[in-house]
Structure formats: structure tokens, C-alpha cells
Amino acid sequence: MLEIFQKAKKGKYAIGAFNISNLEQLKAIISAAKNLKSPVIVSTSQGERKFIGKKKIKALIDVYRRETNLPIILHLDHGKSFEVIQKAVEAGYDSVHFDGSELDFEENVKQTKKIVELAESNGIKNIEGELGYLRGKSSLQEKVEIKSEDLTDPRKALEFVEKTGINMLAIAIGNIHGVFKSGQNPSLFLDRLAEINELISDKAGLVLHGGSGTPEKDIRKSLEFGIVKVNVNTELRIAYTETLKKVLQESQEVAPYKIMPPVIKAVQKVVEEKIRLFGSDNKI
Length: 284
Ligand SMILES: [Zn+2]
Fold this sequence. Notes:
The protein contains 12 helices and 10 strands. It has 284 residues and is of the alpha/beta class. The strands form 2 sheets. The protein has an 8-stranded parallel β-barrel with strand order 1-2-3-4-5-7-9-10, surrounded by 10 helices. A two-stranded parallel ribbon has the order 6-8. α5 (82-91) runs parallel beside α6 and α10 (234-250) packs antiparallel against α12. The chain is globular and about 60 Å long. The mean pLDDT is 95. Zinc ion is lined by residues 78, 177, 209, 231. The site of zinc ion has 4 residues, from loops.
């Protein structure tokens, strides 16, 4: 496990993983991390990394690391095949997430194990696997119902970690991707989280996907039970898009560099709120 996660585990806080697909979002995240002296994870999902390009994002991250001296981790979010992970490793990603959650248990174990071998042989210390069914997508959406069979089974989680050798596990404990149009997302099943953590806390850190819209008190509580990484995407997308729409409606400006600063500020504000909520401020 990367040192930032070992520290987070000990200190009972989490590092935010923030998704981006362009430079403005990246600027916002780095400014927030710099302001609050927080380690940060920059994450790209399939569509996002296709848009910005893996080598280009890696080059940008390198520049920001040199400029700021911040611990910035470049992370691959929801890689669904060996080839995808391999390409990210070759491009210089620091951390990878293999999402085999749609596969049956044995196949998920088999494929995740291969990813662990690939990542380890390339010096990647952080390998996230996934178990359990996460509903939703990273946007505003209608209500979805969470069924008890969606949730990660604690014993299976232990078996999964032991058999695959991963050091980070994404779990389903009532979290969803995206934010409900009607307002707040469902509460987390914290008892289930506690059970999972009890069994695997000395073997892996736990990851909460769907950090957007989840009740803040649940997130705070989850930090006591082994959550060391929280993924946030939808709230950043909404802040970006809503602010951009407003700016364009209210002005005749045509220079992008004059249009974008309020958009960047709006995203930065959300990132700062999340960093404080996760407790990773003043940790460097
Ligand atoms: Zn996710």
C-alpha cells in the first residue's frame, strides 16, 4: 500500500479521489489540495482518460508534482480488462482499480489476481479490487433501490483479499454512483462496513465509491471503519457544468481563459469541502 494510505489508515481519515477529464478540473483539484495541505488522488474513468489521454494526464501530473511538491497520485478508475490496466501501467499511472464486480466470484478472483501480478511486476504499490454490486452512474439520476444482495459479503471480502493479494478493496455498502435528482442519496449500511473492516483491516484499505451525495454524517462515521479512499465525481461535474452555463448566460466574453476561472473556483470549492469532510487537510 502507498504510504499516504498507511498514514490515512492510522489517522482514521480518507484521501479523496477526484475524477477529471480536462485541465480546468485538474487545476481546481490541485489548488484545493495546495490550499488545504492535503494529499490527493487524481482519477480517470474510461471516458475521461479517452478524452484527455493517459500520457498527457501523466505529463500534467508530473509538472504539478514538481511545482507544488504535493503527494499527487494518478489513479485509473474502473479498469475492466487486463489490457486497459496494462496500458495505464505503461503510461505511468501510480495506482490501478480493476473492476471485476460484474463477474462471478471465481472469475473476479482469477482476473484480479492476474492484475495484481502485472501491477506488482511493474512496481505499482496500489491495487484496488472490487466486490459487490454498485448501482447508478456518475450523473444526476432517478432513485435506484439498493437490494441486500448488492452489498459486499464480509466473508467473501476476506476470501477475495486473501486469494487476490490486493491491498485496496472497493465495497458496496449502500453507496451508489451519482446523485439522486430528488436530493440526498441513501444512508450507508455502517454495520456491514464494520463487519467487513473487522475481518480485513490488517490486509487491505477500504474504498468508498460514490462519494457524491452520500450523507456527510455517514461518510464521517465510515472513516472510523477503515475507509481510506473516497471517490468523488458527480458533484464536481455538476459544479463545473452549472457554473459554466451561468457564466455563459451572463456574459458576452469569448476568451476561454476569462470564462473558466469562476468554473475552476466552483469545482475547487467542492473539492475543499470534501477534503475537510474526509479529514485529509493538513496531513502533509
Ligand atoms: Zn466508481
